[in-house]
Amino acid sequence: MTNTLKSPNVVNPSVLAPVHPAIEGYMRGLLSHTDHAVLTEMEALAEKNNFPIVGRLVGVFLETMAKSINAKRVFEFGSGYGYSAYWFAKAVGATGQVICSEADLLNKDKAEQYLRTADLWDRVDFQAGMAQDIFAQTDGLFDICYNDVDKGDYPEIWLLAKDRIREGGLYIADNVLWRGRVAVEGYTDVFKGWTEAIREHNELIFNDPDFDTFINPTRDGVIVARKKTTD
Q1: pTM, full prediction
Q2: Residue 10's pLDDT is what?
Q3: What is the CATH number of domain 13-227?
Q4: Which residues lie across from 74 on neighbouring strands?
């Protein structure tokens, strides 16, 4: 495969904030209309436990992307305790469905608590287990496949999902800039092989002729790939 992502000789990925913090702070300040007690609780729990969530800016982006294609069926690879599902469930409406997958049963219980309080639980099918197994046991096409599992599995998830997305549908994945590690040579990885897996994942998608792809650099980078239509 041709490597289309050239990395400069930068050795300190900690300084590679894709969007300046002041800009992100300004953008967050515009989102006061999204305030909700459930969101505040979920975000406080993430901060307390250092649990990775996409955050308010990316959440609004996910909701907007889903609404832009009138998404009604979403599959989440990796759902944590339902933060991203909150935004997708808002987008799909009362007749839509978000299928969540999460290995930790405790997170499923927390998700039910939060999403039920937000009157969104009836739009969610939250299944405990390995995302790949749950996906294989779920039939049909999806409007959106969303990927936020362990980063070493990213290439596998893309290959599983790409043929199960309807024409005009979206594949979305979080953390595709990985705190700048994908763009530097001398990075320190969180887990061995994860940065290379994300790089492989990104290149696979950008080189796939059946998808139009871009990266939103907000927070840790969100890739969006739209499956082309045949008409």
Answers
A1: 0.91
A2: 45
A3: 3.40.50.150
A4: 98, 144
